[in-house]
Predict the structure.
Amino acid sequence: MSEQDTPTYAGPQRVFSGIQPTGNLHLGNYLGALKKFTRLQDDGWDGIYCVVDLHAITMPYDTGAMVSQTRQIAAAMIACGLDPKRSIIFAQSSVRAHTELCWVFNCIARMGWLEKMTQFKDKAGKNSERMSVGLFDYPVLQAADILAYKATHVPVGEDQQQHLELSRDIAARFNEQYEADFFPLPEALIEGPGARIMSLKDGTKKMSKSDPAENSRINLIDDADTIAKKIKKSKTDMLGDMPSDTGGFEGRPEVKNLVGIYGALAGMSDDEVLAEYGGKGFGVFKPALAELAVEHLSPITARMRELMDNPDEIDAALRDGAERAKAIAEPIMEEVRQTVGFWRP
Ligand code: TYM
């Protein structure tokens, strides 16, 4: 973080991120977010990782599936390497600070700022009048998630960039309005391979939980055969073999995506992947990619299944995480209440 970002904020450096319990987690969530969480933990960062169930109810959802989806995200976090004793893993709705701070921020954020949010526009389409107020307010709650812990760093995929900018605007406006250097301006950690994984069926569309085409994504709970089949069936083009350098990605978004996935899994740059596979056919590259993906994902899948079969372990982690999260957020909220001028008992 540059000094210019948060000139006088001198609090602890802390990581926060969240994942929605909606639909199956996929390779994009893994490479864009979960893998980064584990790396940050291993690098010694204090991390708070939240299953954002309050966000999940902004769109139509299955009430009966919420508990199991919440457990599935927590299981994925643990299976990917987050240690619930070191990192905090919890469900958003179990810590009241998120909704309370969201309300305060609702009175800081401006309608015009939210009207610019592309994710709302994408989700609402032509039906914005019929969308929930919660969906419109979604990014304000996201800012509250981060700032209830005065988190300084937020690992996310590229699609969250604009929401993170809004969080910074809200923090800055709060600091300005109350003449307090209260909140840090949180920095998005997006850089690196895997920040934007695209659909296996359309290289111009993001890999997404909500895509009706099952073959467009690799789910973290897919078995080895399914992963291999989906990669084999992934879209390529009729423009010949693998390009020999990244200049050859021009007009070939699907090929660029597959190379990017390979690189993100193997810890290689696109150039390094092409040095190995440039000029070879997809009949060679796709099986190699499938093997690599299976090698990476099958231990995670196995651990996730094990955890899902034993929800007590997940629930214990979520309960403990909620208590530790509250212990950080509550004193911050008390300071917020005082700063905004509320009567205190
Ligand atoms: P969600 O649940 O949609 O996605 C979880 C994380 O996965 C990343 N991601 C991707 N990365 C690369 N390629 C893709 N195709 C891809 N698809 C998803 C997302 O960028 C995200 O990091 N609004 C957030 C949840 C949230 C949050 C927060 C995040 C709520 N509060 C506070 C950070 C901090 C979301 O919808 O994530």
Q: What stands out?
A: The two ends are 38 Å apart (CA to CA). The longest strand covers residues 15-19.
